Structure formats: C-alpha cells, structure tokens
Amino acid sequence: QYGVYASSSADSDRLRIENCVVTSNYSGNVFLASSNDQSAIVQTKISRSYYGIYTGGSNTSVVGCEIFGNNSWSVFMSAAGGLVQDNQVYNNSHGMSVGGNGTQVTGNLVHHNTYYGIDAGAGVVVSGNRVWGHASNSYGAINASGATVRDNDVFDNATGISGWASTVTGNRVYHNVTGIVAQYTTVVQGNSVYSKIGRAHV
C-alpha cells in the first residue's frame, strides 16, 4: 500500500506534490522509482509509513517538508542532482539516505531518529544542517562515504560525524560522546570540536 506511487516504467517526470498530508500508508507514503525524474515534494507532511519518501529519479527535490514517525528511512534518494532542503526530519527509524553525484542536503533540522541522521554517499554535499539527538548510533549522526560535509552544527549525538574517503570541513561539532571519526583518506579541516561531557575525539 502506497500513498503516491510511480513505478520504474511510469516515466512520470516533473510530478509535484505540494501542501499535502500523506500518512499511514503501509509500504511507503511517497514512492517514486527510477525513470520518474525532476519530481518535487514541497511543504508536505509525511508520516507513519515504512518509507517516508523514496525517490529513484534524477533531479528530485524535497523542500520544506515535515517527515516523522516512519519505520525505515524518512528520505531515501539515490539518483544524481537531487536537493533536500529546509526539512524537519525527526522520530524516524532512520533519518535520510542520500546518494547521487551533485545532490545537495542543506538547511535541514534532523533530530531524534533511532539510527542515522544523514547518510550521504559519493558526490553528495551536506551543508548548513543542524543534526542532534542520535544517542544510540555509533556510525555517525552524519555518516559520509565519499561525500563533502561542511558548515553543519552537530551536537548531542553518540558520534557526531563519521567520514570514509570524505571531506569534513568547517563544522561545529560539540557535546557528542565522540566528535569526528575519520577513516580511509578522509580530510578533516577547520572544524570546531568541543565537549562538555564524554570525549571530544577527532
């Protein structure tokens, strides 16, 4: 059962969902498989499903939404050229998983999800977000694999930022148990990392 559904053979480009409430659909509230490009989900409340928003088409935008109470990912975006901006994402099992070269994740409030806050793949830029309250996730409130993570506020998490072959720069990372975990050629530069409790590790 889906709220809004487009299969990989639909090729429904430029679909726009705006000022809607999409809730309590068992398999996914908004599920747009590959071939459905240039979709936009704007100022919509998405809650209480398995996937909040699943998009496989390129150049998809999720802007100004409130996404909460979903049992898997709040936002799962896998294609290039996407935009996830100015959303509030909270109380989901997972926050958002975002892939695709050139995809931007910016200006979001991401908090109190059970596992990841933001999971970013290769070529994604994560900037200007506030991410907090992920106390049980040792993988990183922001987890980056080949991504750029810059100018974010990351606080009150088990692990603030975890990077693998990524660039982590200009972030304010504080009041986490572990601040930044850097692995496999990750560049960590110009961050402010401090702690009132636990370990301010970089």
What's the arrangement of secondary structure elements?
Elements lengths: L1 E5 L9 E3 L2 E3 L4 E5 L7 E3 L2 E3 L3 E5 L5 E3 L2 E3 L4 E5 L5 E3 L2 E3 L3 E5 L5 E3 L2 E3 L6 E3 L4 E3 L2 E3 L9 E4 L2 E3 L2 E3 L3 E6 L2 E3 L2 E3 L3 E6 L3 E3 L2 E3 L8
Parallel strand pairs: 1-4, 2-5, 3-6, 4-7, 5-8, 6-9, 7-10, 8-11, 9-12, 10-13, 11-14, 12-15, 13-16, 14-17, 15-18, 16-19, 17-20, 18-21, 19-22, 20-23, 21-24, 22-25, 23-26, 24-27
Largest sheet: 9 strands, parallel
Q: Unreliable runs, pLDDT <50, ≥5 residues? A: none
* Succession of helices and strands: EEEEEEEEEEEEEEEEEEEEEEEEEEE
**What is the tally of beta strands?**
27
**Overall spatial form:** globular
The helicity comes to under 10%
Mean pLDDT over the full residue set: 94
Q: What is the beta-strand fraction?
A: over 45%
Our measurement of the CA-to-CA distance between the termini, rounded to an integer number of angstroms, reads: 44 Å
SS-based structural class? Answer: mainly beta
User: Measured on Cα atoms, how large is the radius of gyration?
Assistant: 16 Å
* Count of discrete alpha- or pi-helical segments spanning 4 or more residues: 0
Q: If strands are numbered along the chain, what order do they take across the biggest sheet? A: 1-4-7-10-13-16-19-22-25
